């Protein structure tokens, strides 16, 4: 199967520091792929290059849209344009609008698909009002899928930690992505929250057909969820394979997994 995200020889230099050194990585339709490695390996830099926060120094980032099968090179596109192309992400640290409601946070995610611009918002014609109503319905439906509907009118800041993390995923889903990039979604979660997250990610893949690329340090989660795993160390890719292959790869055990191979 052709990859829907195909990253070739991606390189990122910060002055004299090569944070990414010719990284090849691909994700196919419906896959859950993990990117792992020690602190400072370059994982978040990789996400930042894919999502337009950094312009890579070299290499290609290619996406293939399911609807027309066309491949597009997205190097250096602004983050909002990357989101429009169907790649949505969450961040290592929670980035919600804390003083807005749960529903409003998801509605903001829908914004990139709305047609009425500022003029429409000012004039509030019939089509704008209809569109706003549709956005409320869509946001509520997403919250229901994610299991957050009971919090719909709560301020984001009042949600339990695990629910805030899931709200970030809901907001990303509101942009109608074909792929979600999740940066350490289980960070700071307790085992019960992590288990819920595991189920949620599988459900998103099953019911929405969205592919997932995630950075994660929780090896139990990574090993149970992933179809394939890519491993980085010091800006280089040191391995790729299935969880079974990665678990027994000597270079990965040396650089990262250590004694954790029972995970
Ligand atoms: N904007 C920047 N300017 C200079 N150096 C940077 C910048 N962003 C990242 N780096 C450096 O690039 C390297 C890779 O960092 P990165 O945050 O991508 O690692 P990581 O694998 O995501 O680590 P962690 O697991 O701790 O989040 C590090 O040496 C970091 O200091």
UniProtKB/TrEMBL annotation:
GO MF annotations, alphabetized: ATP binding; ATP hydrolysis activity; L-isoleucine transmembrane transporter activity; L-phenylalanine transmembrane transporter activity; L-valine transmembrane transporter activity
Keyword Transport listed: yes
Keywords for the protein's UniProt record, in alphabetical order: ATP-binding, Nucleotide-binding, Transport
Gene Ontology CC entries for this record: plasma membrane
InterPro entries associated with the record: AAA+_ATPase (IPR003593), ABC_AA/LPS_Transport (IPR051120), ABC_transporter-like_ATP-bd (IPR003439), BCA_ABC_TP_C (IPR032823), P-loop_NTPase (IPR027417)
UniProt xrefs under SMART domains: AAA (SM00382)
Keyword Transmembrane recorded: no
ABC transporter domain mapped to chain residues: 5-259
Biological process (GO), any one: L-isoleucine import across plasma membrane
A Pfam family the protein falls into: BCA_ABC_TP_C
UniProt-listed Gene3D superfamilies: P-loop containing nucleotide triphosphate hydrolases
Name of this protein: ABC transporter ATP-binding protein
